[in-house]
Each structure stands twice: as C-alpha cells, then as structure tokens.
Specification:
Layout: E1 2-3, E2 6-11, E3 14-19, H1 30-44, E4 51-56, E5 61-63, H2 73-80, H3 87-105, E6 111-115, E7 118-120, H4 122-128, E8 132-136, E9 140-142, H5 156-164, H6 166-175, E10 179-180, H7 181-187, E11 192-194, H8 199-212, H9 215-228, H10 233-247, H11 251-261
Parallel strand pairs: 3-4, 4-6, 5-7, 6-8, 7-9, 8-11
Antiparallel strand pairs: 1-2, 2-3, 9-10
C-alpha cells in the first residue's frame, strides 16, 4: 500500500514505514495521519512481518510532529474551533489521534524508530511508541508544546517520564530546550547513536537480526516486557511462565534446538 505522504514497503519480513513530507520536515497532517493508521492496520494483518522500521524521508528530519502551519486548514480549525465545541467532542478528537500512537506500541512485533535530523513534539511521541530508538549523531530532540500553549497528549508525558524519569521529563517539557543525540543517549531517550552515514545500515542490520529470530519467541518477549514492567515481580514471573509454555510445543523451538545441534542457521516459520 502507498500513500504519497506515508509509504509502506514490506520485504524479507521487514515492514518499513516512511513519513514522506520532507518539505514540511515530515510533519503529519490529516492525510498523513490516515496513511499512518492504514499502514499499521496492514502490518497487523500481515503474518509475514516480523519487525517494523519507522523513518522520515529527506535526511533532515525524523518528524516535526503535528502540522499546525497555516497551510493545514484541517488542523488549524481543530484548534481554533475547540472553544466552541463540547468538551466531549474535543476529548474524542484527542483520543482518536492518541490511538494512532497506541496502535504503534501495540503492534505484536518489534518496532524500531530510525531517527535522523530533527525530532520535534509529536515526532518524538511517535518514536516513544516504538520499542527501540536509533539516532544519527546529528539528531536533535525538542518538546515545544508548553511554549505553544498545550501539552504532549499523544502519550508523551506518560511514555517519556517512564523512559527518562519524571524529573528529566518535566525539564524537557517545561523548558522546551533542544537536546542533541549525545544527551538523548545519556538520559535513555534513545538506544544508540551512529554516524549519519551509518544509521540506515545499522538500522537495517538490527531489523534483519530481529527478523532472523524465532517470531513467536520475539513476540512473547515483547508482550512479557511491555505487560510485566509495572507488575509485581511475582505476577511478572508468572507471565513469563504462561508465555513460554504457550510456545514450548512450537515447530520453531524444535528448529532452534536442531539448528544448534547441527551447527547451522535456523529457519523459523513462526509456527
């Protein structure tokens, strides 16, 4: 499936979503939001996909987030008319946007954000919904919401505080200051930093490595970590048992063990 503002390519078990508005620093307007949601839905229904990569086109930006420029009448009217609409109507609209980010986080397979150049506001919130964030050494990160008059309501305050701690999250939101890739790595916002020219190759290498692993085991690991991180230890341990028992009789487990014994590369089928 292709949408000129959002591109989807699926090859060798890897689905790549490209935010394709480089002239607008890959900001998301109404069409892009719709395209992103359609990509996620298509990936959800495709059992061949084992890992997802999300990136921005053009090399200068991952994404500058929500497009609130004067050129975007749909988004502008959403803000300017909010005073005249019911509280319930405004809340529904925010939740609809939020669900796009949630659908990224809830994908059963791992999702990697490949971040080159600037990432601003909602653009970072997209990355926060991913499992792994890789960045180029020229990447920058900024949350300007409080200085525009609103808050990060697409999971930003929730996910960022859990990732970097409440004190650092408050600092980033309150000040709106820009941080570079080195600082982002230091506070745990991103997983790794690479030279700009190496980012795509490093991301592809990681995606391929994940795609080569046993799909059932990878997906069970994602569920266990995502669901278990805020559980009591005893409940998280129980979840590990439940998840592992469900895949112990899989063909992939047999293949993994036999390939180890036979000293060959395993060929997993997700069964």
């Amino acid at each position: 499936m292709e949408n000129e503002k959002i591109l989807l390519n699926i090859e060798d078990h890897i689905a790549t979503i490209t935010m394709n508005r480089p002239e607008r620093h890959n900001a998301l307007d109404g069409d892009a939001w719709t395209g992103l949601q359609r990509c996620i839905s298509e990936i959800e229904s495709n059992d061949d996909v084992r890992v997802v990569v999300i990136k921005g086109a053009g090399g200068k930006a991952f994404s500058s987030g929500l497009d609130i420029s004067m050129q975007n009448e749909q988004i502008q009217s959403s803000f300017t008319e909010s005073k005249d609409r019911s509280r319930q109507s405004v809340m529904k609209e925010i939740v609809d946007f939020q669900n796009v980010f949630n659908s990224i986080e809830w994908l059963p397979v791992p999702v990697i954000a490949c971040m080159q150049g600037m990432a601003i506001g909602g653009g970072i919130e997209i990355a926060l919904a991913c499992d792994i964030r890789l960045a180029s050494d020229d990447a920058t990160f900024r949350f300007p919401m409080n200085h525009l008059g609103f808050i990060a309501d697409q999971g930003g305050t929730t996910r960022l505080s859990r990732l970097v701690g409440t004190a650092k999250a408050k600092e980033l939101f309150f000040t709106g200051w820009e941080i570079d890739a080195k600082e982002a790595l230091g506070i745990g916002l991103i997983n790794n930093v690479y030279k700009t020219e190496a980012l795509s190759v490093k991301t592809e290498t990681m995606a391929q490595r994940i795609a080569e692993a046993a799909p059932l085991a990878v997906q069970a690991t994602k569920r266990t970590i995502s669901m278990g991180w805020d559980m009591a230890i005893k409940d998280s341990l129980k979840l590990e048992v439940i998840e592992n028992v469900s895949i112990l009789a899989s063909d992939d487990l047999t293949e993994g063990i036999m390939s180890f014994i036979e000293k060959r590369k395993p060929v997993f089928k997700g069964k």
